[in-house]
Model the fold of this input.
Amino acid sequence: MRTLSATWLLLLALPLATQLDRRAGEPPRPGPELADRRHPRARHPLSAADQARFERGRALFERDFHRSSGLGAPEMNADSCRGCHQDPVLGGAGGLELNVSRFARDNAGAGPFQNLPGGQGLSKLRPPYVAGREEYTLGEADVFEQRQTPSILGDGLIEELDAAVILANEDPLDADGDGIRGVARRLVIDGKTELGRFGWKAQVPTLSDFVRDALGGELGLTSPADARGFALTSDTDAHADPEIQTAEADDMAYFLTNLAAPERVGSLEPEVLLGELVFAEVGCAKCHVPELPGLDGPVPLFSDLLLHDVLPADFRGMSEPGAPAGSYRTPPLWGIRTSAPYLHDGRASTLRAAIALHAGEAHAVRKAFEARPLVERDALLAFLRDL
Ligand code: HEC
Ligand code: HEC
Done:
């Protein structure tokens, strides 16, 4: 007897594959941002001049700087931005070994929290298997915090959101009694109040500010002084300051601002659809708000961009004005399937572990999730892997 030919198998499998995909007719795909790791897409069509600017910014983000162009202050964490932001494409997230650390003194948890020179400003490559920041601390620091490299993809859409859209979800006094507060990060920049949108504690308002901050903090490259205060304006290496010109820093920011957001896999599998329902029903969506209204339609980021404390009550970490220890910005979940490890310090290597570590404001929601039958919990994970 003849066996089924490959063609027959293909014909039999085709209708099934089509049925499984959200957009009928298209084969399931990993997301177009994976098409070319080094040339991530812009989020909208750009004119020839703008495309050239995007490419200039990309090249700088990718560039390996050398001592001869001022790299290091004299210390640095990497010789390029790409060195950390690279998964799944340029501008994406980074692995655990690329964690940086911060330190301070909180008197063994009893308080008060005290900043130490360089403790929060200096970002130092310090993977979790290395104990602390002994070379900076002179025995005074007793609290350390790791920070994991987040993805920048789609951040331009976050920057564009009207402040009122973010403020609308605040509930500082928990008026609705659901145990979830949510406060926006307010920063005073050059005498004016602005919303913090980027960084684990929403400590930076714009991508342009973050570029200057990272040029100094990660690469030890100085840029021109401005009134916003994020640039490292002078350092101790022999290279003349500024080592990066305003036009270059602006091109880098232009590149980041225009990076396309991660695209959903878009599976229509019943498990994924069930997972999406469970996500809303147990209350994940109260903080990981599926979409916020943007300039060009809904922005499907799965975050409210507000600070929440989901850490255990005895957590010790960095404290800043308006963002006490334990407070972190709800991380957007778009692209979460490619940005492991998870949480501000990367201590969760799987999505399951990330959920299990939700406490504080998210305690009741996690309990509600855990009370669901296994098939629903698995479905929720399948949904997250679709994002
Ligand atoms: C040593 C690794 C490392 C290098 C090199 C690095 N970054 Fe980062 N990046 C991080 C970490 C860690 C964070 C999170 C910091 C925090 O919130 O405390 C971050 C956060 C960011 C963010 C905010 C993303 C968000 O959505 O919150 C931007 C923008 C950014 N980096 C841009 C850059 C640029 C531009 C460069 C090069 C000049 C660069 N980074 C180099 C590790 C790195
Ligand atoms: C009270 C607000 C809140 C609720 C409710 C909540 N989260 Fe979170 N979530 C956060 C915050 C804040 C973090 C970051 C915590 C940290 O970095 O230590 C986070 C982190 C995560 C991460 C890791 C993201 C990353 O990029 O590292 C995942 C995944 C996640 N949450 C999924 C869920 C799921 C699924 C639920 C529902 C079962 C849920 N969350 C409920 C606020 C919330």
The two ends are 45 Å apart (CA to CA). The chain has a mean pLDDT of 89.
